[in-house]
């Protein structure tokens, strides 16, 4: 039973059945044709001889048969050699016609004539004595097979029954030989077909064993395993390649996940350590109220840092789980950016940074709160990573199918080696400095996740020492790949 669950066995069974059907059909047809061919030849010879006997026994009054008489045979309705028609009982064939009923012993033609009273009238010397008179005798010649004999019989107008026959043992042996030959050839083709099918299916299904072994190893936790397949063109080769890509993505995703957890724990450890140290110090002995206040203020800062971090982690988790922005509305990106600029202006003034604005109305569909976070993140970075007295150019342009938001600063820029990584979570170019200043390296990751959730794109170009330009492109509202409810007004 277990064989029927195997793909290879099912293929083999189907393949075998199909071959058997085709070969049997083909062989049977060939055998039938060969048999009919042999019998037709014998029947034709019997019919010729029947014509001779019928022509010699009695004339009939029917019109001459359509069938042309064979060359050398006397016409059916005329007595041979001008003699009057003999009575069947007195029939003696002339030598030439008699020779047609001689031949290799056992294979010669014979004839039998039954008189109207069912008495056997005349029979040739080679005729089997026990040949039975046919039951129903038609006017035109009819044929029957009797054991190894083939016989043709017909009635004369005067109700004699004529029968011409021959032992067709040799023809039957020929037909049997042909059947054996067909059977042998069919069997050989079947075996060859089955062996070929087995070989092809074994080769084709071989990668499945490899795939299942690799999947089993991966299930035990070894994500470095890959399927080894040399056959890259077949469907299974393609499947193996796709699975390998999936395994690679899974491995990278697991690695990112663990890295993310490690980074998040690391980031949280610092403020927690601050709180613990402050409280331990404060509780160690009685202190003046000012010192308590100082400790509490330090704890508050640490808690605020933790809260910021936790909010960032929550935002990322929501964006990761493909949560659709809560409210999708038609937003004016220019207006949102303008409000964000006003919020960061005090920070810019503090660092003597000039803000250069070029804001036009640009409508897009999205979540205003999240888009404001994008603007705020990019503007804060442009101010924070700028040089004192530098400038930030902020523009919002409406394009035919997108709203374009650009932030260009004159700051320190980003080294080319760091550029591909700055959207990664917890990635910071200057880890020590930005960490100490409370920068967690999550701002750009959140920004990118929001932009992607809105079906947009974000790009960065930077020249170290010259400045950086961030460009956000948001679709004007036709669709959002991650939102089913994203519709056009
Ligand atoms: P952070 O909270 O550290 O600012 P971000 O994800 O916003 O985290 O930024 C990641 C890193 O990219 C920053 O640590 C900084 O090194 C770099 N970066 C971001 N924006 C700019 C900018 N405008 N100019 C130079 N470097 C920048």
Largest beta-sheet details: 5 strands, antiparallel
SSE-based structural type: alpha+beta
Output the helix-strand order.
HHEEEEEHHHEHEEHEEHHEE
CA gyration radius, whole angstroms:
52 Å
Mean pLDDT level: 84
How many H/I helical runs? 9
Strand content: 15-25%
What order do the strands of the largest sheet run in, or round the barrel if closed? 2-1-5-4-3
Cα-to-Cα separation, first versus last residue: 61 Å
The global form is rod-shaped
The percentage helix is 40-55%
Molecules bound to protein:
adenosine-5'-diphosphate
Report the uncertain regions. 69-85, 478-489
Outline the structure in words:
There is one protein chain. The chain is α+β, with helices and mostly antiparallel strands and 489 residues long. 49% of the residues lie in helices and 15% in strands. The strands form 3 sheets. The chain has a 5-stranded antiparallel beta sheet. A 5-stranded mixed beta sheet has the order 7-9-10-12-11, covered by helices on one side. Strands 6-8 form a two-stranded antiparallel sheet. The structure holds adenosine-5'-diphosphate.
């Amino acid at each position: 039973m277990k064989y029927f669950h195997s793909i290879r066995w099912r293929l083999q069974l189907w393949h075998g059945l199909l071959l058997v059907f085709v070969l049997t059909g083909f062989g049977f047809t060939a055998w039938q044709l060969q048999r009919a061919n042999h019998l037709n030849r014998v029947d034709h010879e019997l019919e010729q001889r029947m014509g001779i006997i019928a022509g010699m026994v009695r004339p009939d009054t029917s019109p001459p048969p359509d069938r042309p008489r064979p060359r050398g045979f006397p016409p059916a309705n005329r007595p041979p050699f001008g003699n009057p028609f003999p009575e069947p009982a007195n029939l003696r064939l002339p030598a030439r016609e008699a020779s047609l009923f001689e031949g290799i012993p056992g294979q010669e033609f014979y004839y039998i004539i039954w008189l109207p009273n069912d008495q056997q009238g005349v029979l040739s010397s080679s005729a089997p004595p026990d040949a039975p008179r046919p039951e129903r005798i038609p006017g035109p010649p009819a044929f029957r097979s009797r054991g190894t004999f083939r016989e043709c019989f017909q009635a004369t107008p005067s109700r004699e029954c004529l029968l011409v026959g021959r032992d067709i043992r040799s023809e039957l042996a020929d037909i049997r030989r042909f059947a054996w030959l067909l059977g042998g050839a069919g069997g050989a083709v079947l075996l060859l077909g089955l062996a070929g099918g087995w070989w092809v299916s074994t080769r084709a299904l071989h990668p499945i064993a490899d795939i299942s072994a690799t999947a089993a190893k991966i299930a035990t936790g070894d994500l470095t395993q890959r399927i080894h397949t040399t056959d890259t063109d077949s469907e299974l080769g393609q499947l193996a390649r796709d699975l390998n890509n999936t395994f690679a993505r899974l491995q990278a995703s697991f690695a990112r996940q663990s890295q993310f957890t490690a980074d998040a724990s690391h980031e949280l450890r610092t403020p927690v350590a601050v709180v613990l140290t402050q409280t331990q110090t404060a509780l160690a002995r009685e202190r003046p109220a000012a010192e308590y206040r100082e400790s509490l203020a330090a704890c508050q800062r640490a808690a605020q840092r933790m809260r910021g971090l936790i909010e960032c982690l929550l935002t990322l988790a929501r964006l990761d789980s493909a949560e659709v922005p809560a409210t999708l509305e038609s937003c004016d990106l220019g207006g949102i950016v303008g409000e964000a600029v006003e919020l960061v202006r005090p920070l810019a003034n503090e660092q003597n940074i000039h803000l250069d604005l070029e804001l036009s109305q640009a409508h897009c569909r999205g979540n205003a709160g999240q888009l404001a976070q994008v603007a705020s993140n990019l503007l804060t970075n442009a101010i924070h990573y700028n040089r004192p007295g530098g400038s930030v150019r902020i523009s919002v342009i409406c394009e035919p199918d997108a709203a374009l938001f650009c932030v260009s600063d004159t700051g320190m820029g980003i080294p080319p080696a760091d550029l591909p990584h700055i959207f990664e979570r917890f990635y910071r170019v200057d880890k020590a400095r930005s960490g100490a200043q409370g920068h967690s390296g999550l701002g750009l990751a959140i920004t990118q996740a929001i932009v992607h959730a809105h079906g947009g794109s974000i790009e960065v170009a930077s020249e170290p020492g010259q400045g950086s330009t961030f460009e956000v492109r948001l679709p004007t509202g036709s669709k959002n790949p991650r939102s089913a409810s994203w519709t056009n007004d």
